[in-house]
Specification:
Shape: globular
CATH superfamily of the largest domain: DNA ligase/mRNA capping enzyme
Number of helices: 25
CATH class of the largest domain: Alpha Beta
CATH topology of the largest domain: D-amino Acid Aminotransferase, Chain A, domain 1
Structural class: alpha+beta
Helix content: 25-40%
Length: about 675
């Protein structure tokens, strides 16, 4: 066995090529021990010393560097762009099941399809990550590609090379050419550390490990990808170098090749054993250091898989059992108020910090006063929290069994919590309370955050922490002040955590925001009821902001999808001298306050409302919304009886359930794309 003694041998005892080969072998050996067996022989410091020695040797003598050298994991030159590549065989998506009856029905269909009485299955944890296809030629990794639309994906090889649990060269002597597929994911510990650093830097926090993983794989800076410590678990192999007859054998083969395989893989002789596996990990998933969102069940025999085949893009021989949203119990320490950019005042639960679905939750939304009263919350109660869509924490229940006898139900304060302490009011027929004080510092913070956000002006470097610093320092007193920050560069450099490079990044982001289209500017202004979709409709109907601000109630409501409440809000904004002054300042700063929104491709979807839910593979959700709107349709955020279609991608949740309950037609991604192509 290779030892640390070998690592410490002097380079002068062998020639440089032999030493480089020895270092590569040592590092691979320790990678296998660390990632496959969780039994490291040396410390991280000793490992880093080996890697640094190899880096130094290859830097001094580039002819020694090989394509599968461990030094390729540290990241290199920025990636110019991601190339789309075609998968050798399609990457299928799994159908979802949510109940025991659906599992039993799957087993019945499989047995009937094969004409046999019993079937062997393999169960695996469904890692909540990003599907990845790896191609090896002559034993060396030559490409890593995302799933994409199943037929084609993005070549992200440079970032894949940075993942230490992916072997750059195969450990087997007989298998040299193969396609290996699996899941790239992130440990919860890593995710929490990255979010902590983001919070300290004043940057926006990431929603969950899966989203951060997906974003990391599309980083153009592979060194940044390397710093985020992604992981990989393999579950599929396609090769002609060895005959593999069962899925269980393929998992064993992958381990021989040097891959990390699933934390829990079990062959089940009956469907009852499958159900037992599902139940076990439903209760034990909190013990895992990474997130799972269910269990994958596959017919074990490869010949049976081929006989069963696939329907559309889903195999008939496998499915994913999806778990319900995770819940946790904690103590309600207080109920505070949060003031939004439009003056909406929302109660927020301050909680005893608790870990839920990969993140520590200390605050959760309580929506409005009526919601709190329906739950009958008292400070000190034990509450149940869950993540809606595994992203946004919310309070979903309360346990009153241990409530103190003198506990008092919470009631809504009637003054703004900001230092100005302005009176709040609740319009008749609405659930929300409002603060109308235009000088409210909390509203200013929220307006600035909204204006600079990714979906609005997308100003890089202007996050919550930066905005708070600038307001405190008197550098920002309005949205228009953002475009005067270039003159305050020296003042910014005096603030904590600001260096010349970060200031330059901020100022470049501000300058770039001037190119955002008119519809984005309308959305960024934060006019009440004017979301992204409404802003596009208004931009299409009123090609300049001057035309919009001069529009009458009748002119506004004559536009399809613009109702009385939106019209009244736009008119109220137009009548506000401060709002008009802001528009004038933004125009003077060079922002786009006129210009026709993209022309309609057709009117095929006119009068139709779509709700897109789940994960689409061939387009982003924003791209799906744009495609709908380009055909005259409306992209809504919630399902109702008026919804024309629900477009359901992978991992669709409550919106799909509601569509089923209401009888709303559901389109899968293939059907949606076909509809777009014919519209």
């Amino acid at each position: 066995m290779l030892s640390l003694f070998d690592a410490a041998s002097e380079p002068g005892s062998t020639d440089r090529a032999e030493r480089a080969a020895q270092l590569r072998e040592l590092i691979r050996h320790h990678d296998v021990l660390y990632y496959q067996h969780a039994q490291p022989e040396i410390t991280d410091r000793a490992y880093d010393a080996l890697l640094q020695e190899l880096i130094d040797l290859e830097t001094a003598h580039p002819e020694l560097r090989t394509i599968d050298s461990p030094t390729q994991r540290v990241g290199g030159a920025p990636i110019a762009d991601f190339v789309t590549v075609e998968h050798r065989t399609p990457m299928l998506s799994l159908a979802n099941s949510y109940t025991r009856d659906e599992v039993l029905d799957f087993d019945r269909r499989v047995r009937e399809g094969l004409g046999i009485d019993s079937v062997s299955y393999v169960c695996e944890l469904k890692y909540d990550g990003v599907a990845m296809s790896l191609m090896y030629e002559n034993g060396v990794l030559v490409m890593g590609a995302t799933r994409g639309d199943g037929e084609r994906g993005d070549d992200v090889t440079a970032n894949v090379r940075t993942i230490r649990s992916i072997p750059l060269s195969l450990a087997t002597s007989d298998i040299r050419n193969a396609v290996v597929r699996g899941e790239v994911y992130m440990l919860e510990k890593t995710f929490l550390e990255i979010n902590q650093r983001a919070e300290e830097a004043g940057d926006k926090l990431y929603a969950n490990p899966r989203n951060l993983t997906a974003g990391t794989l599309k980083q153009k800076d592979s060194a940044m990808a390397a710093s985020r410590k992604l992981e990989f678990v393999a579950y599929y192999i396609e090769t002609s170098d060895r005959t593999i007859t069962t899925h269980a054998d393929s998992i064993t083969t992958l381990a021989e090749m040097g891959f990390v395989t699933g934390r829990a893989v079990q062959t089940c002789a009956t469907i009852d054993e499958v159900l037992q596996f599902i139940d076990r990990w439903d209760s034990e998933r909190d013990t895992l250091p990474f997130q799972i969102d269910g269990i994958v069940v596959k017919v074990n025999t490869i010949a049976h898989q081929r006989e069963l085949g696939a329907v559309a893009r889903s195999p008939r021989w496998a499915f994913a059992y999806k778990y319900e949203a995770q819940k946790a119990r904690t103590t309600l320490l207080d109920i505070t108020l949060q003031v939004g950019r439009t003056g909406v005042v929302t109660p927020v639960a301050e909680l005893q910090p608790t870990l839920l679905a990969g993140s520590t939750i200390s605050r959760a939304t309580l929506h409005n006063e009526d919601f709190v009263q329906e739950l009958g919350l008292c400070v000190g109660d034990t509450v149940v929290i869950e993540k809606g869509g595994d992203v946004i924490p919310k309070v979903s229940g309360v346990d009153t069994s241990a409530r103190a006898d003198d506990a008092q139900p919470w009631s809504m304060p009637h003054h703004c919590p900001c230092p100005r302490n302005a009176a709040l009011h609740r319009p008749e027929g609405e659930a929300n309370w409002y603060c109308d004080d235009g000088q409210c510092p909390w509203q200013l913070r929220r307006r600035l955050e909204h204006f600079a956000s990714r979906d609005a002006m997308d100003i890089d470097g202007l996050g919550e922490r930066a905005i708070d610093q600038f307001i405190t320092a008197g550098l920002l007193t309005s949205i228009a002040d953002i475009y005067t920050l270039a003159k305050r560069r020296d003042d910014i450099l005096q603030l904590d955590r600001w260096a010349p490079k970060s200031v330059d990044r901020l100022l470049a982001g501000i300058e770039a925001s001037k190119n955002q289209p008119y519809a984005r500017v309308l959305f960024a202004l934060g006019i009440r009821f004017v979301g992204e979709g409404v802003a596009k409709i208004l931009a299409r109907a009123f090609p300049s902001i001057d035309m919009l601000l001069a529009a009458t109630h009748e002119q506004l409501t004559s536009v399809h999808e613009i109702g009385s409440a939106i019209a009244a809000s736009v008119i109220e904004f137009a009548a506000d001298p401060a709002a008009r002054a802001l528009v004038a300042d933004l125009r003077a700063a060079g922002l786009q306050v006129e210009g026709q929104a993209p022309a309609l491709l057709s009117n095929a979807f006119e009068g139709k409302t779509f709700v897109v839910t789940g994960e689409l593979t061939s387009m982003s959700r924003n791209e799906a919304h744009s495609a709908i709107e380009a055909r005259g349709g409306k992209a809504a955020g919630s399902v109702s009886k008026k919804t024309t279609y629900v477009v359901a991608g992978a991992n669709a949740g409550s919106k799909l359930t509601k569509a089923t309950e209401l009888g709303v037609p559901v389109l899968d991604e293939d059907a949606f794309r076909s509809l777009l192509e014919t519209s």
